[in-house]
Amino acid sequence: MNKSQKLTKLIFLAMMVAIGVVISPILRVEGMCPMAHFINVTCAVMLGPWYAFICALAIGIIRMAFMGIPPLALTGAIFGAFFSGMLYRLSKGKLICAFLGEVIGTGIIGAIVSYPVMTLFWGKTGLTWFFYVPSFIAGTLIGGSIAFIFLKQLQKAKLLSKFQTALGSNVYEGSDVVTNDAIGIACLGFIGYLATVVIVNNFVTNPTGFVSIIKYIVFAVFIIAAVVFWFVKKPKKESKESYV
């Protein structure tokens, strides 16, 4: 990495920290901050695990200092950022692995670590080791899915590798595009499921019948679409001809 790339990387890191602080309140409730996970996965792919970790750490400290956010701002971000970058690197550039790294790092590891941190340093009572797991996983699925779709579009436009080159980051080619696209469609299904739950809970007093199961129908439609897409678009293997 030359000096120009290093400077570009630091500028990009500062920009991502600023963006992360600004957009973090979107969709936020205690224990769930989807846009933080969007930043994590994007940084992990663009900059690598250690820069992603620094970005998450800086955003968390700023949010705690100026917004009064509890230590969840750190435990719910730094592990996912690092694991996202590591799995992306170990998989040689598979975006779905960056997404899964965020889910595992934040949704499981970060959620479990949050229990003693919130109990000892924040004085929270009535918590259990897995108290934050559901909300953390939900947040990572929403924010991670948005990042996955965003990065997929950059990849399709041949811009992702250009950005990575300009930043002096590792560039990977030849990942399984069709499988990643299919998983991206499935991830949209989860977002559609959550959106349907929110709409029904806010506009329908006593959901019954079709209304009560519409969220599952929306999710199933996306899953079916993902499976169909994969079977239609998957590379066809050349059939071997036998000669007598």
Automatic annotation (TrEMBL):
<dbReference type="InterPro" id="IPR012652">
    <property type="entry name" value="ThiW"/>
</dbReference>
<feature type="transmembrane region" description="Helical">
    <location>
        <begin position="6"/>
        <end position="27"/>
    </location>
</feature>
<keyword id="KW-0812">Transmembrane</keyword>
<feature type="transmembrane region" description="Helical">
    <location>
        <begin position="182"/>
        <end position="204"/>
    </location>
</feature>
<keyword id="KW-1133">Transmembrane helix</keyword>
<feature type="transmembrane region" description="Helical">
    <location>
        <begin position="68"/>
        <end position="88"/>
    </location>
</feature>
<feature type="transmembrane region" description="Helical">
    <location>
        <begin position="95"/>
        <end position="117"/>
    </location>
</feature>
<protein>
    <submittedName>
        <fullName>Energy coupling factor transporter S component ThiW</fullName>
    </submittedName>
</protein>
<feature type="transmembrane region" description="Helical">
    <location>
        <begin position="210"/>
        <end position="232"/>
    </location>
</feature>
<dbReference type="Pfam" id="PF09512">
    <property type="entry name" value="ThiW"/>
</dbReference>
<feature type="transmembrane region" description="Helical">
    <location>
        <begin position="129"/>
        <end position="151"/>
    </location>
</feature>
<feature type="transmembrane region" description="Helical">
    <location>
        <begin position="39"/>
        <end position="62"/>
    </location>
</feature>
<keyword id="KW-0472">Membrane</keyword>
